[in-house]
Amino acid sequence: MSTSIQRLHIVQCAMGQLSATLDKLQAVYQQQDHIILMEDAIFALYDARITAFHQISVLNSDQNLVSPCLNDLKIQVIDYPQLAEYIAQADKVLTWR
User: Fold this and answer.
1) Mean pLDDT of all residues in the chain?
2) In DSSP terms, which residues pair with 85 in a beta bridge?
3) Minimal CA–CA distance to 16: which of 37, 33, 40?
4) Which of 53, 54, 59, 27 is closest to 41 using CA atoms?
5) Which helix (H) or strand (E) holds 57?
6) CA distances (Å), 64 to each of 20, 27, 43, in order?
7) pTM for the model
8) What are phi and psi of 93, to 5 degrees?
9) Which H/E stretch holds residue 76?
10) Closest CA to 35 of 45, 67, 16
């Protein structure tokens, strides 16, 4: 990754909070932001609101939960070292739990 990320959103909420978290995320999201879905939050890929977001990544350890969905969306699969790189290069990191 060669460019800086203005805001990195790490979404790691429980399944029961996913809808409310997506609503809040939509309210603050800007086109240059990057989103990383982790754990149960990866199921946001099945929500129609996900198409409003442009740069989305999931961890390779979570991708097996939604593999068919990844084929239909432009989702980047990353590993933990890449996650650390995104965090280091972001101007601001927001965690959604």
Assistant:
1) 89
2) none
3) 40
4) 59
5) strand 56-59
6) 24, 29, 11
7) 0.88
8) -115, 125
9) strand 75-78
10) 45
